[in-house]
Specification:
The protein is α/β, with parallel strands linked by helices. It has two domains: about 130 residues, Aspartate Aminotransferase, domain 1; about 230 residues, 3-Layer(aba) Sandwich (Aspartate Aminotransferase, domain 2), CATH 3.40.640. The chain contains 14 helices and 14 strands. Helix 13 crosses helix 14. The radius of gyration is 21 Å and the shape is globular.
């Protein structure tokens, strides 16, 4: 049999087995959205699987900005940004991002995934080295592979390992270090002060993926530098426009010379149609709301403390999470599926993450906390998790 067909059949067989066991919880359409509550399959459920950490989806200012842009410019643009696809809105969004991140300039791409893919592959090539934390997001890994640079990794958040990789690099090679700010499966935070120090010592550019950091970390939600009380510790600030920011797309902020380079070299910018007007305006308004309504960041951080503290008190293993991404470790894949089923039967919309997305033996439920969760919601969820955990032997 053709190896391609073998891989296709193997995945289809796995999906069929999971469905037959009643454990397939993916691709469920959400028919209604109501803050922390959703309706799917006719059932109203408490959502613990979304990325709208600050509860900005449906915010009146953001919705109004999108509607105004739609009425003025229509549903799309005339093409790619570098030719006829740039509107004043695109420039305004990039200026807003640059101000928010306290950099000289910014570039916006069509998705967060594409942002990492295009930026990394534009910055490094065959004679360079790119160094990554082992738990970096798949989009970073794919950008490293596409670049054809020498791709090396260090153990998760292991600063001695990072230094060894920097020491091993060809001194004549260009060096780029890429790390997540908040790791999307574990919810922990990179040791930015030490990563930044090592990059400066070994003359390496530092790119930090803040997809789960902006709007989450720091007293006012400005991200990982604010969290650690640092300034200018990062060369390239990457972020998405589809998590705390309720739109679509991604961005990189940094020095003007780097952004100019990317706007003329990054293939996914040069050859991709620009963001639609409504999504661009929504993203711009979202950054403004984060700065205007700082109570949202404080409430999110309070909810994280309540939820994490409650899980730990009940005996759950949440690894080293300190963010709204909370892994509830179940062990083997089968147990994660069983616990997800018990939780969904209890009214929680929460999903299992299994191998190969996470290491074998570390399958989990990935629960995401948001501003929309009330204290009563969190208490209800903790009770459901506890009952499910006891029922399947997780606790």
């Amino acid at each position: 049999m053709n190896p391609i067909q073998q891989r296709i059949e193997a995945m289809n067989e796995r999906v069929a087995q999971v469905k037959e066991a009643g454990w397939y919880f993916y691709l469920q359409p959400l028919e209604e959205l109501d803050g922390a509550w959703v309706t799917t399959g006719g059932r109203r459920m408490l959502l613990f699987a979304g990325y709208s950490y600050l509860g900005l989806l449906g915010h009146p200012k953001i919705t109004a900005a999108a509607q105004e842009a739609l009425a003025r410019y229509g549903t799309g643009t005339q093409g790619v940004r570098i030719l006829a696809g740039t509107l004043p809105l695109h420039d305004e969004l990039e200026e807003t991002i640059a101000r928010f991140k306290k950099t000289e300039a910014a570039i916006v791409y069509s998705s967060g995934y594409v942002t990492n893919l295009a930026t990394v592959s534009a910055l490094v090539g065959r004679n360079d080295v790119v160094i990554c934390d082992k738990y970096n997001h798949a989009s970073i890994v794919d950008g490293c592979l596409l670049s054809q640079a020498k791709f090396v990794r260090f153990r998760h958040n292991d600063m001695a390992g990072l230094e060894r990789r920097l020491q091993q690099a060809d001194p004549n090679a260009g060096k780029l270090v890429v790390v997540d700010a908040v790791f999307s499966m574990d919810g922990d935070v990179i040791n930015l002060p030490e990563v930044s120090r090592l990059c400066r010592e070994y003359d390496a550019l530092l790119m930090v993926d803040e997809a789960h950091s902006v709007g989450v970390l720091g007293e006012t939600g400005h991200g990982i530098e604010e969290h650690f009380g640092l300034n200018n510790a990062i060369d390239l600030y990457m972020g998405t426009l589809s998590k705390p920011i309720p739109s679509v797309g991604g961005y990189v902020a940094g020095k003007q010379e780097i952004i100019t380079y990317l706007k003329h070299v990054a293939r996914a910018f040069v050859f991709s149609a620009s963001l639609p007007p409504a999504q661009t305006a929504a993203a711009k308004a979202s950054f403004e709301v984060i700065e205007e309504e700082t109570w949202r960041v404080k409430m999110l951080q309070r909810n994280v403390e309540l939820f994490l503290g409650g899980l730990k008190a009940r005996g759950f293993n949440t690894l080293n999470s300190e963010t709204p991404i909370v892994p509830i470790i179940c062990g083997e894949d089968e147990r994660a599926f069983q616990m997800a089923k018990a939780c969904q039967e209890g009214g929680l919309f929460v999903l299992p993450v299994v191998s190969p997305a996470v290491p074998v033996g570390l399958a989990r439920l990935r629960a995401n906390v948001t501003v929309d969760h009330s204290e009563e919601d969190i208490a209800y969820a903790l009770d459901v998790f506890e009952r499910a955990g006891k029922a399947v032997g997780v606790i």
